[in-house]
Write a structure and sequence with these properties.
single chain; alpha+beta; elongated; seven-stranded antiparallel β-sheet; 4 helices; about 270 residues
Length: about 270
């Protein structure tokens, strides 16, 4: 029988192909040191991020609790502290930016006649005083959203979006008389109030009893007081689902435990 030559039958008995053994040289001492340093840095960074997240969560929880106590919300608002690291900001005594969103701030008689469906607040340069009852913000921008349903419950007439931008429709009715609908322009008035002007009848007949109901609801501007004091109402716009009231303030001191915030300087700027 003829002998067939195979690749692994090299002279000398050493295989040429098919050898699965692989030799890996150990890393040099310098490379080992670099690996250890890199792993240590990653571990330190991960630990630092974890500690910073704990500090952030505590700051957000503390702010939410204070706001809930001060404004009387049924649920604790959501709070988000921006920027990293937060620990450095806390050490410096000032948070660069804080966003807060609260829902269903209730009305409270004549002092707070309008409930606020949703309040979003952005605070820049929020300085903590070391007291749980006070914080100072360099500037504040807030929007109070008032749903038509909540506005209707507070004022009496059935309020809905008007046919033109910046206007609402208000409908009242009496048994055996029928309904009447008027259109009114909404605008910001002094004293953080929403005014209803340029009232026009769009449907029905405005007989004296119905006119009296509408005058009671729309004749006087309605204050929006379910926001931290020290903020000034800048604009009012109508949307598909409700009214947006935008507020701003500068150098505002917020004392949530007493539902009070005072402008120490330039709140009307």
């Amino acid at each position: 029988m003829d002998h067939q030559f195979r690749p692994d039958d090299e002279p000398g008995g050493e295989p040429r192909y098919g050898d699965s053994a692989v030799y890996v040289s150990p890393p040099s001492p310098g490379r080992r040191r670099r690996i250890v340093v890199a792993v240590s840095l990653v571990a330190l960074l991960a630990a630092g991020v974890a500690v910073d997240r704990v500090a952030t969560a505590r700051a957000e929880s503390r702010t939410a609790e204070a706001f809930q106590d001060g404004m009387g919300t049924a649920e604790r608002p959501s709070v988000h502290v921006s920027g990293f690291p937060v620990l450095t900001q806390l050490a410096e005594g000032s948070l660069r930016h804080v966003d807060l969103t609260a829902h269903d701030i209730p009305a409270d008689g004549a002092s707070r006649p309008l409930p606020v469906t949703r309040l979003t607040v952005g605070l820049d340069g929020l300085e903590t005083s070391g007291s749980a009852d006070e914080a100072h913000a360099r500037s504040v921008d807030a929007t109070a959203f008032l749903s038509y349903e909540d506005v209707s419950d507070a004022l009496g007439p059935d309020v809905s979006r008007g046919d033109e931008p910046g206007r609402i429709d208000a409908t009242v009715g009496l048994p055996l008389v029928g309904d009447v609908t008027v259109s009114a322009a909404v605008s910001a008035a002094s004293g953080n109030r929403i005014a209803f002007k340029d009232v026009r009848v769009v449907r029905g007949t405005l007989i004296p009893p119905l006119k009296a109901l509408l005058d009671k609801a729309l004749e006087e501007p309605v204050p929006v007081r379910n926001v931290p004091e020290g903020l000034r109402l800048r604009s009012v716009t109508t949307t598909r689902d409700g009214i947006d009231a935008r507020f701003t303030g500068r150098s505002v001191t917020f004392r949530p435990s007493s539902s009070s915030a005072e402008s120490s300087a330039g709140s009307s700027a």
